[in-house]
Write a structure and sequence with these properties.
Blueprint lengths: L3 H41 L3 E6 L7 E4 L1 H7 L3 H4 L15 H11 L4 E8 L5 E12 L5 E10 L1 H16 L3 E5 L5 E4 L1 H5 L23 H12 L7 E6 L5 E12 L5 E10 L1 H50 L3 H33 L6 E4 H15 L5 E6 L5 E4 L1 H18 L5 E9 L2 E8 L31 H11 L3 E7 L3 E9 L7 E4 L10
Parallel strand pairs: 12-14, 16-18
Antiparallel strand pairs: 1-2, 1-5, 3-4, 4-5, 6-7, 6-10, 8-9, 9-10, 11-13, 14-15, 15-17, 16-17
Helix pairs in contact: 8-9, 9-12, 10-11, 11-12
């Protein structure tokens, strides 16, 4: 038994050693296998990967993967043992390098974008991420660098930046509370400032003209609610308080997931365009005024020519005749034409005053008394025929207007009715009020107006016959229309040849504002039979 113990002991020792060696070999295999897999992963990484020794002088590269070789054009054995600064060539004045040096000195991770150069000398933009690696004691022994060629992205950014900065339009980037977070140079200068710092962080609303802010807030709410806004005009206020009008195109910018990021607003100063439009409008109006003036002069000249010719010929005959009766007749003819001319001049002056649109003297008027007085005077002036029937359902109704103008308008409509109604005919006048308006209707049983003539009767100098052989100047109804419009009212007319004509004048009593002249259906007028 004593001899067996030493033998057993030696066997156990040998068995223990074999087991230990097996365990060591298995662990070593696993470590080597894992290391090989990690190396393959790094090699297959599409980003360039380098490893530098943080403990060696000048932090040399000790490893570079295949992607690094493809990005830079250098083989790994050409760069091992060198500092990675060789990729910068002589281009050492870059802000990102200071950031990178501080991170290395402080043993902190960082990301920078640098201008680097390939082996063939071509430039590429390199996005570099570095991170420290530590041993089991926490000591930084290495840095790993991940590199990506972002030249295409950088070119796109530079193109965007170029468009952003060189745009003739002001471009603003606003956060979702409408505060300015970025703007191009035009965006700064258009508001009258010289530095971006003067506007960044300020609410965009503070640069909007006060009278436009309420509408701006409404548009902002609609934009944030997802509505797509069409370009619109807005008044802005510069630093010095002056205003300018701009066209605004605003939209929400979203990320890839559809979440709103910020508001992009493009602002175009359209002051010059507005001025050009205003000049164009003024030229058009001036041309129109000139055409109207020429038309006015041509028509007025024609109206003056005939009575002046009569006056001239009558005066000539008077100078050649010794017949007292003939001279008396010619004198009466001259006086009649002078009265005719005087009336024409008065009407032209009145029409001019109405067209100029100056301040109209206005006062309270009892409309039923005015209409009654005009009806009575007209009946007396025409000798009682045709018969005039006046009925008012209005009592003590006061409107505001110009007494003389309204007398002229009512009298002219009545005068027309008397002129074109036969002695055995009838003229009906009705005055009523409803819905804040007072209406005066004048219906006659005269010759009526042709349907083709109705659209023209309110035109200046228009008469049914081109030779102007019929009495009148073609000014009366044009003046009536203008007077009623100045009072915020309207004139309507309906007529049938051989049956008569109906005029309706409507005037507001409490702010009802109609305007213009139009045709109407006779049956639409209450109280006129």
């Amino acid at each position: 038994m004593v001899g067996i113990v030493p033998v057993l002991s030696r066997f156990i020792v040998r068995l223990h050693g074999a087991v230990a060696r097996r365990l060591v070999n298995d662990r070593s295999y696993t470590l080597l296998h894992n290391a090989r897999m990690q190396r393959q992963i790094i090699q297959a990484n599409p980003s360039g990967v380098i490893l530098v020794d943080a403990l060696a002088f000048d932090m040399p590269i000790i490893y570079a993967n295949q992607a690094f070789e493809q990005i830079t054009g250098y083989r790994w054995h050409e760069v091992v043992g060198t500092n990675c600064r060789f990729l910068q060539g002589n281009d050492r004045n870059q802000p990102g390098l200071d950031t990178l040096r501080r991170a290395l000195a402080q043993q902190q991770p960082c990301t920078v974008t640098l201008r680097n150069y390939r082996k063939d000398g071509t430039l590429f933009w390199n996005e570099v991420r570095i991170a420290p690696l530590t041993d089991l004691r926490g000591r930084v022994t290495h840095f790993v660098g991940i590199q990506n060629d972002v030249t295409a992205r950088k070119a796109a950014e530079m193109r965007y930046r170029s468009l952003f900065e060189q745009s003739n339009d002001a471009v603003y980037i606003l956060d979702l509370t409408a505060k300015i977070i970025q703007a191009n140079e035009r965006g700064v200068s258009i508001l009258g400032y010289d530095s971006l710092d003067n506007i960044v962080g300020h609410a965009a609303m503070s640069f909007i003209a006060p009278h436009s802010r309420a509408e701006m807030e409404s548009r902002l709410e609609r934009l944030l609610a997802g509505e797509r806004l069409a370009p619109y005009e807005r008044d802005f206020q510069r630093k010095d308080g002056s205003m300018f009008t701009a066209e605004v195109n605003a939209e929400i910018v979203h990320d890839e997931a559809g979440r709103p990021l910020h508001i992009q607003s493009i602002v175009r100063d359209i002051g010059d365009r507005k001025q050009a439009q205003q000049r164009k409008l003024e030229l058009a109006l001036e041309k129109q005024r000139a055409e109207l003036l020429m038309y006015f002069i041509r028509k007025a000249t024609h109206e003056f020519r005939t009575p002046l010719a009569v006056i001239g010929s009558s005066a000539y005959l008077m100078s050649r005749s010794n017949d007292v009766q003939q001279r008396h007749n010619k004198l009466e003819q001259i006086e009649s034409e002078i009265t005719h001319i005087t009336r024409l001049v008065d009407m032209l002056l009145l029409l001019t005053r109405l067209e100029v649109g100056g301040t109209m003297v206005s006062a309270p008027i009892e409309i039923q008394m005015l209409v009654g007085m005009v009806c009575e005077a007209a009946q007396a002036a025409h000798g009682g025929s045709p018969q005039l029937d006046y009925l008012s359902t209005v009592e003590a109704l006061t409107i505001h207007g110009n007494y003389d103008y309204l007398v002229y308008a009512v009298n002219h409509v009545l005068d027309n009715a008397f002129r074109y109604t036969p002695a055995d005919g009838k003229i009906s006048v009705r005055l009523a009020s409803s819905n804040g308006n007072v209406s005066l209707t004048v219906k006659d049983t005269g010759s009526g107006i042709a349907e083709t003539d109705l659209p023209h009767i309110f035109e200046t100098f228009w008469r049914r016959d081109e030779t102007h052989s019929t009495p009148g100047f073609g000014l009366g109804l044009a003046i009536v229309k203008r007077i009623i419009e100045l009072h915020g009212g309207s004139v309507a007319v309906a007529s049938r040849v051989g049956e008569g004509t109906v005029f309706e004048i409507t005037l507001p009593t409490q702010g009802a504002r109609a305007a213009g002249a139009h045709m109407m259906d006779v049956s639409s007028i209450p109280g006129v039979e």
